Amino acid sequence: MRGRTAVLSPRGAPRELEDLAEKGRLIAGQRVSRARMQRRLIRRARVLAIRLALLVAASAAVAGGGLGLRWMLTSARFAVTEIEVRGAHGLRRESIAAAGLVPGVNFFRLDPRAIEERLESLPLVRRAEVIRAFPHRVTVLIEERRPFTLVHAGRLHWIDEQGVDLGPERRAVTPAAPVITGLGTTDLSPGAGGSPGLTAGVSLLRILLRSGSALLAQISEIDVSRPDGPVLYTVDGIEVRLGAEDWEARLGRLLGVLAQLRSAGEAVTSIDLRFRDQVVLKTTAR
Q1: In angstroms, what CA-CA distances link 21 with 17, 18, 218?
Q2: Which of 110, 129, 173, 189 could tie 141 with a disulfide, CB 3.0–4.6 Å?
Q3: Cis peptide leading into residue 103 (ω within 30°)
C-alpha cells in the first residue's frame, strides 16, 4: 500500500501547533487579549477623570457661592432705601427704627417676623406686618390700638377694648364714657393680663354702649373695687349697686327707675338692684 506519510522532526520548519484539547469555561474566561485589557484601563481612567472634574467643579461652586452670598449681604445694591409706614397715627418713627428697621440696613439681613414682634410689644400697636419688596423697599402695616375709655389707677390712663394700657393722660379731659375706677397700678402693669376688676369694668361699659340708651349719658363712673360687683355713680351722685351678674337686665330696670324718680321729683342717694324682682331705694334725708 502506497501512501504519503509525513514525519515531524525537530529539524523541520517551525509551525503553529493546533490546540486539540477541550477548553473548559474557566480556562476560556481567563484568556483576555491585550487589546481588551487596554480598553478596560482607558475606561477606568476616563471615569476617574470625570469624578475628579466633578469634585473640582463642586469645590469651585462652594467657594464661588460663599463669595456671592457675602456680596449679597454687604453690597450697597441691596441696602433698604424706601420705608413706607401705613396705619400709624400715634406711633413715632423712632419706635419703628428701634424695632430694627432703618434706611441702609441690608435687604437680606432683615428679619420681618422679629421686627413685627418688637412692634407688637409696644402698647400702642395691636398688630404689625412687614412686607419686603426686592431689592430695597419695605412696607410696614400698622394696626394701632384705639382708646376705649379712661381708668383711674393712681392717675388717669387710657385703655383699649382689651384693657391694654395705652399710657397716662396728662391733660384735663372730659371723657365721653364713664371712667372706670377702683383699680391699682398693678392692674395696669404689662404682666397683669387683665385683672378681674378691669375685665368687669370693660365688659359692663360694652353693655352700656351696645344698649344705645340714654343711660350711658347719666353714668359718670364705674367702681370695680367692690367684691360683690360693680357700683355705678350717676352724674347726680346716686350710687347704683348692680351685683355680679345679669347686668343687661338690671341696667334696663335702672333706666326705668331713674325715669320714675324724675317724674315723681323724688331724690335718692342709692339704688340697689342686686335682688331679684326688688329695687331698694335710699332716699335723701330731709
Answers
A1: 12, 9, 128
A2: 129
A3: no
Backbone dihedral angles phi then psi of residue 232, each to the nearest 5 degrees:
-95, 150
Question: What are the beta bridge partners of residue 152?
Answer: 156
The ranges of the chain annotated as CATH 3.40.50.11690 are 149-283
Distance, in Å, from the CA atom of 100 to the CA atom of 109, rounded to the nearest integer, reads 11
3-state secondary structure of 24: coil
Task: Answer yes or no: are the C-beta atoms of 157 and 169 closer than 8 Å.
Answer: yes
Res 67: pLDDT = 66
CATH of domain 77-144: 3.10.20.310
Q: What is the pLDDT of residue 258?
A: 93
Strands 156-159 and 165-168: antiparallel
217-275 per-position pLDDT tens digit: 999 999 999 999 999 999 999 999 999 999 999 999 999 999 999 998 888 999 999 99
Q: Where in the chain is the domain with CATH 3.10.20.310?
A: 77-144
**CB contact set of 38 (below 8 Å; sequence gap of 6+):** none
Per-residue confidence at 283, pLDDT binned at 50, 70, 90? Answer: confident
CATH topology of domain 149-283: Rossmann fold (3.40.50)
Region of residue 150 (left: phi > 0; alpha: psi -120 to 50; beta: else): beta
